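Sequence in, structure out. Go.
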Amino acid sequence: MTTAHTPVLHPDLSPAQRDCLEALPLSGNHLVSGPPGSGKSLLAAHRAVHLALTDRPTLLLSRSNLLRQLLRDTLRGLTVPGAPVEAATVHSWIQRRFGRDVPRTEDGWFDWPTLTRRAADTLGEDESTTPHLVIDEGQDLSPGFYRLVRLTAASVTVFADECQRLTETNSTLAEIAEALGRSTGRTEISGNHRNTREIAALAEHFRTGGSRPALPFRSGALPVLHHYTGPGDLADDIAGLAARQPRHRIGVIVNSLRTAADLMSRLERASLAQEPQLYSSTATSGRYRDLDLSRPGVVLVHRASAKGLDFDTVVIADAESDAGTDPTSAALRMAYYVMITRARERLVLGWQGSRLPRHLEGLDGWVGTR
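Output:
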């Protein structure tokens, strides 16, 4: 197997992204970190294609199924004949590797110590089929997972941002590197190629740690803090956004599937130019499972599935659902940091009720109101 660099460049990559990609050897374990908008998911897809050129099975893994769909579509534009890459969820890959009856723990996740012992017992049995693994949004997986893949992969490359840890089974960058081994290479990628300066500045208000990245040069409209009188007012506003920006992808991020279902029903009756889409992690197939994230129109998604995605316009629809949460909570601040940074051009922070939620107080200068 060759370990020489074999760049597969894409015209949309920035010079910094190309330098990052070309500096990664095709062997060993590596951890690439960067802020939202730095292009980690795109780089993860490129990295997977590079590794596939070594004639070894290569998988691009994510925890989120919706992110898997986005990565799958990205890979289609990077296809290299004879070097296939599969985008898969961690769940599906674990069950394929260890069987459908894989042991689980009380939290519903896998029993990582047991699986690691199984992997150790079969280490080296079929070296030719041992895959390269590339993992996107790797901060949402536990150290136990990384101790397992250290034994089950020819190489592991992780793209992560520890300021976006939204799950209970998460890892810091230090924990990922320690679990993968002392020889793990560390790389940082900078730059924000997604958000406007105004959106990125608001996101920084919610940042929980780490060094502050430079704000983007591209400027745009101020984010909007919008008080809705009720569900009908919210749906009408979203329908109006879709009508005024028919080519935009509008992501409506909610904290309640009940809110999502109600909005979907209202938007379907609004006769939008593009049929609205709703993602449900509980659906096993069909229209609520498989989405077309590339086409214009409205996409309704729970905040737990929003990471790694981006939209021209983002509406955070039900900020009042967090009114009872401590506004200094790290989990709450991370959630808003992630949701805000999904927006490329426009952002609406929506709330209902008689009193502005505490975590949205004091945003003068960062947002406009209506």
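Check: The chain is about 30% helix and 15% strand. The longest strand covers residues 343-352.
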